[in-house]
Fold:
Amino acid sequence: MSKLIGKISQKMKNSKPDQILSFGASISHVEGLIPLTIGEPDFNTPTHIKQAAIDAINDNQSHYTDSRGIEELRKAAVDFVARKYDIHYDAKSEVIITVGVTEAIFDTLAAILDPGNEVIIPTPAFSPYFNCVEFFGAQSVEIDTSKDGFVLTPKALDETLKNHPKAKAIILNTPNNPSGVSYSEEEIKALSDVIKKYDIFCISDEIYSELNYEHEHTSIAKYISEQTIVYNGVSKSHAMTGWRIGVIYASADIITVIKDVHEYTVSALTANAQFAAVEAFTNGRDDGVKMREIYRIRRDLLHQGLTEAGIESVKPSGAFYIFAKIPDRFGDDDFAFCRRLATEAKVGSVPGSAFGKAGRGYFRLSYATSEDNLKEAIRRIKKFVGEN
Ligand code: PLP
Structure:
C-alpha cells in the first residue's frame, strides 16, 4: 500500500467504483456461473471488418491520426446515421470519434457541467451517467419511470424540468440499458416537444439503435437537432466492444469544446480500429440487423422462461437486456437477491439499484449469450425461485 494513498483527490476519495462492473467482478469467482451480467455481444466481429484492420496495419496505418478521427470514418459515421435515421451532420465540423461511448459521456459532461449543476436522468439508467455527473461536482436528478413501464412520459419530464429550471442537460437512452425499452417515433416526438421549451442540452445515447425489435429507431435529433448531442458507435451493432470506437454528433460549436477535452485525455485514437469502423459503417451497414434477429429469439426465450418462473418483466423492445421484478417474498434488497442467485443458483445478474433508485427491487439479465446458456439459466432460475 502506498504511503501516499491518503493524498489522492477528494473527488476520488468520495467516489465509489462503478456498480455494474464491481458487482460483476464480485461474483465472477463463483464456479460454474452462467454470467448474464454481461453487456456485450457474444458474437465475433464480422470477418470483413477484421480484414479492414489487418489491411490497415499492413498498409502502415500506425501513426497518430487526426484527433477528431480519420476523415473516412467521420464521413462513414455521418453517412450511416443519415441513411438509417434521417439525421444530418457535417463530417468536417459536427462529428468526433471517441474511445467508445464511454469516453463520449465523460467528454460531454466535462464540456458542459460546472459544480452544482443538475442533470436530469430518467431511471433506471446506465451507471456511468451518474458516476460522471458526480465526478464533475454536479447532481443527478432522477425521474423514476418504473410506474410507467420504464417509459419517460412527457408529463413527468415537463414537471421535472419546471421544478429544476437550472438543469443543464437531460440524458436519454433508447433503446435502453437496462430496461430494454425502445421509444417509438411518436414518443420521441412528444418528448422533443417538451424539451424544446427549455434551454437544456439533450444528450441522446443511441448505442443500441440497431437493436430494435418492434419498430425502426428514431433519433430525437430528427426533431431538436440544435439542442441534441447524439452518441452512437460500433460496440453493440457490430460486436466491436473491444475496438473502442464511439461517435458524437452535435453542432460544430459544441463539438469544438468536446474536442478540446478529448485532446487533453485521448489525443488520437487507435488507427487500425478506425479503419475497421469505416468498414463497419459502410459495407457492414446492416451487420447489426442480422445479429438482431438472433437476439430476438433469445429475448423471447428468456422473457417466456421468466414468466413461467413467476417473475414479472416488461418485454423488451430493444437492446439485449431484461429488467425483471424480484418476487415480493425475496424482499427488495436487489444486491442480496443477486448475490444469492449467483452463489446458490449460479446465474449472474446485475442488481437493479446499480441503475439508480428506480431499480431497487429489480435485477437485470443480459441475453447476449447462447440459447443453450439461456435455457440452462432459466432452468436454474425456475428451480431457485421454486425452492425459496
Ligand atoms: N451507453 C450505454 C447505454 C451502454 O449500455 C454502454 C455499454 O454497455 C455504453 C454506452 C458504452 O459503450 P462503448 O462500448 O461504446 O463505450
The radius of gyration is 21 Å. The longest helix spans residues 287-308. The chain has a mean pLDDT of 96.
